[in-house]
Amino acid sequence: MPGSTRSSSLRKSWPGRVNRSHLQPGTRPSGRRRITAGKPISAAQRPRAITVVAGILFLAAAISLLTGVSLLFPDPRWNNLWNLNQAANAAFVRLGAMPGIVLLALGVVAGSAGIGMIREKQWAWWIAVSLFAIHGLGDAFSLMVTRNLAKGVSGVLIAGAFLFWLSQPAVRRYFRPARSQ
Predict the structure, then answer these.
(1) What is the value of pTM for the model shown?
(2) Are 131 and 158 in contact (CB under 8 A)?
């Protein structure tokens, strides 16, 4: 049909339209390579919030794994660790093995999310947002139940700060999947 050829030729000739047919996939008109999701980039190109959040996730993973192991495999060597929070130890011991298993799983999830954050995986962003949201809600609930202002308010504020950082445009762009041009 002659009309379809004309319309396709008009589409190509519109002013301001960039013809990208000569570009290789993944490049910009300037010729620079595009940062694509799934390909690790240097720490200098990564938003600082990503590095901080990933570091906190690694720390949470280490603490969760250590706590889970200490609950599942009781040993006198763990006493110094549990002297920091004897009330939590008593509560966990009453519940049996389940808290230890849950903490091991949480450690694996947090560690995986930290690795995924560094590697630009969008699922890691969702896991991080979920973990911080759950943490903030847990602290808000704890604040209502225990009326411990210092612990509850600080926990909600810290979780809120992490959620704020994760919602920043530069961080969101970092996890946006690359679109072919």
Answers:
(1) 0.70
(2) no
| Residues near 90 by beta carbon (within 8 Å), at least 6 away in sequence | none
Asked whether 20 and 30 are in contact (CB, 8 A), the reply is no
SS3 of 27, please? Answer: strand
Distance in angstroms (rounded) separating the CA atoms of residues 138 and 90: 20
Residue 21 has pLDDT above 80, yes or no: no
In DSSP terms, which residues pair with 172 in a beta bridge?
A: none
Angle at 82 between CA 76 and CA 84, to 5 degrees: 140
Share of residues in the chain with pLDDT > 70 (%): 73
CA distance 36 to 120: 9
The whole-angstrom separation of Cα 14 and Cα 9 is 9
Q: Where are the domains of the chain?
A: 45-175
Task: Report the length, in residues, of the chain.
Answer: 181
